[in-house]
What does this fold into?
Amino acid sequence: MSTNVTETLQFNCTTCPSECLLTVEVEHDANGTVVEVRSVTGNNCPRGDTFAHQELTCPMRVLTTTVAVSGGDEALLPVRTAEAIPLELHAQAMNLIRGLVVNAPIRMGDVVLEDLLDTNIDLVASMDIDPA
Amino acid sequence: MAKFKSSAIDCGVVEAVQTQAFDVVVIGGGPAGMAAALAAHKAGARVAIVEREQHLGGILRQCIHPGFGLSHFKQELTGPEYAQRFIDQVHATDIALFLNSMVIGIDSGEPAEDTAVHTVTLMSPTGMLQLTGRAVVLAMGCRERTRSEIKIPGSRPAGMFTAGLAQRYINIENLKPGSRAVILGSGDIGLIMARRCTLEGISVEGVYELMPYANGLRRNVKNCLDDFGIPLHLSTTVTRVIGHDRVEAVEVSQVDERLASIAGTERIVPCDTLLLSVGLIPENELSVAAGVELDPRTRGAVVDQSLQTGVPGIFACGNVLHVHDLADNVTTESERAGAAAAAYALGGGAETNAVADTSCELTVSPAGIAGYALPGRITAVALTKLNFRVRRPVDTARVRILANGEEVFAGKVRAFKPSVMESFPLPAKVIQRALDLGASEIVLSVDPVEEA
Ligand code: SF4
It folds into this structure.
């Protein structure tokens, strides 16, 4: 439809350390919703194309933070989402995670919270914590 | 009386310090120290790691964000995960660990009987201890530049932290440094902390960068600032700190091409916290005291192609040698240093260093927009990995190797960024060519090229 606008965006692919600068032509409808990703250039490999499409529809990021530890030789346990989750859920996830307390000992990879916000992704420990 | 006098001399003045013997003593238990120790151990050396903190892992324990391991483990890990993998590997060996132990000197006491052996003196929870080894690996990492080194005028209130210190407070000590922050400097730690503060409910007013470009990696500008709508103000710096007991605001000003602040552009930004992310400096006090020569450009040791410093048997790797932007590169470099240290220790010293060729003695210097070149010395005709960093971003430039004013190698034209530590394989035949020309120096020049 003629109300759609085509826009050219530039951002870096963050999939690998090459950080290719992508130039993306994207078509929006009147509400700003992405209708179609017209073209992606500047990517040195096909993963850059996949990244651009994901980035324009639902950007995904790994969330990392800390949770309080009880009885450990460290006060805080670093945690991460096992996989990337939608960026727009990060603030909500932080509110949920902030109240957690875990008991030592903890091993890297232990699940701290299952199925975070129905994403099907677990929140897991990033490091071992031994008892105090 | 005579008896009393002699016992006073023997016991009261010189108490024997306990000594333990190793082949390789590694100073620092972060990513560099662990990788060097593991490589030395794999080569058959008896290895010790000395670490001043209670745990291995170094700075990675507080770098809770992802972005590690993409090249070494082929998957994206957080800093603690990257560290834990190495901690597990170290624990699976008989590498001796001296934790909570501070090295106070290398070869600082009386010269040892065997002059080929280095002595590392440390203070441990049980007292003073000496570790000996034919080889020592320096892996102490770096520290942050502080406010006094960049000279911001104004008062001296509470609320100013280096970004890494704030990171330690938030991620390790469970302390909140403030509630409204301004970040000076767009180094990676500053960018990472902009996101971390935001997630923890500390509002970030903006990141101010003196240079006309961001100093950190692109991925961090995107994922840490753009994702949260945090503005990055380029060519702008903090010109005054305001507040008596606590920071109340900072004054920021734009700067011109010569980085001088432009009168009339001052703006007051209210905040209670100022985080500084203005560069890292290799931590080399111990190295200097041991007689290791430093490169004024990297502020790390001058090393040869095997990462050996000017003091035979002392090697250096990781951020104590030159500041890296990726832990994966620290690991690769430190594995080389650890293997070279083990070869040196087990081979009995320099005389058995098979590749060393007395006819090859070249120094390496940077030119053009290359800020430094590492190694600073080449003593073998073999494929050599050269590292360098450019001083400013350019879209089209090429690496050129010069010897006696003659171009002996030219790389392909591409873009270079100061945020990326570059590596460049220098072929053996180029080194040979330089020697054939009678050169005593190789120049690594990065020169901008006009686009056709
Ligand atoms: S496009 Fe491919 S090569 Fe470029 S940054 Fe993305 S994954 Fe890496």
